[in-house]
Amino acid sequence: MSDKKYGVIFAPTKNIGDDIQTLAAINFLKKKGIAEYTYLNREELHNYDGDEIYVVMNGWFMHNTNNFPPSNKIIPIWISFNISNTKMMKKKTIDYFKSQSPIGCRDQATVELLRKHDIDAYFTGCLTLFFDKHTPKGDRKYLVDANGECPYVPSMNLNMQLFEDFKVIKHDAFKMWNTDVNSRLNLASKLLDDYREASLVVTCRLHCALPCRAFGTSCVFMHKNYSSDGRFAGLEGVLNGGSDYHYNTHAKSGEMEKILQFFNEYTIES
Fold this sequence. Notes:
Strand order of the largest sheet: 2-1-3-5
Number of strands: 12
Distance between the termini: 9 Å
Number of domains: 2
């Protein structure tokens, strides 16, 4: 039996989408036959001083860029990695990435950012797409952060009279820096159950739309910055979204399959 240790990261932010990505990393490990793992705070990886540990490095990085690179006791599993905070690209971080390459990235914008600094990088897509399909569906509909509920997500200015039979959901579910990981993941799990069984979801939230694509749940993804936000780059075929309301509820043909094939064939040390 392997004595290797494994970890997943959590992010102590307001956004439950970060916790959905933690659940995606757990799902990934379980599908690779790994059932035991440790939770590590994304913003404190530099302080880790336990046993050598393999850590799934998926998700958005990061608020405090001075806390990167991670401890040398962390062996990263570079998959579904995203940099939206370009302040990360300091010399010590660039040198670290070069020593770690190739880096598997959630989106094409992160790939291009790393390659700009001569770091070998490639597109993997998001681990939230690796959740299993779910049937049957129920009759509930959800409107998720689409109409000004979140101050940093541009409002789509929808006519709410057209969505009277939708339950409104907000992804900002926690106080900032909440580190109660068990309560965070329990709430995120319940939310994913809602999305699994929904008849329709309408959202501006990436980590609402991508799990819905995995579940086979009909989902309209829209965002005012759809064509310019780097987080969506490379995922356009899966999102099949737009900058205004539309009627595309599933990924374009073949787009999910390419990403799922990569995740299924990916091997990690165990």
